[in-house]
Amino acid sequence: MSDTYTFENYTITKNNEFAYSAAKAVVKLPGIAYNPLFIYGENKLEQTHLLYAIKNEVMKNENIKVSYITYETFISNYTSNKVNLKNTYKNLDFLLIDDFQFFSGKYTVQNELMTLFKQLLRNNKQIVIFSDMELNKLDLLEELKNQINIGLFASI
Q: Is the dihedral of CA 19, 23, 25, 31 positive or negative?
């Protein structure tokens, strides 16, 4: 099913044109253009389509290591393997995070995520975050917010 989600099949509207353009830019220049890219909005179908369009396009390049995670995936990796959590993600070139709003208020997990973000950003690795809510409405550690704020925000 996710293979049908491509940039070519994405319906561009006035409300999502900016997010679409930003997504295409990070695929073309990962780690350089808009890093991190934070896409937010209540239209879950458009978010899902754009997220998988990014993932499918990035995965065409076999040399790029990409990972798609949700809050649940990150928590599972965090609780089962705290010691090797950094090793799980440190060699990524492209990290896609879905349902970022669920990290809100979870400070211990945010601290781990913040460490991961620092490492990836320092090495010019691309981070794309999808959330149902705007960043300023999320209960996040200030340092994590600051890391995200260096990037670009696009609404859907």
A: positive
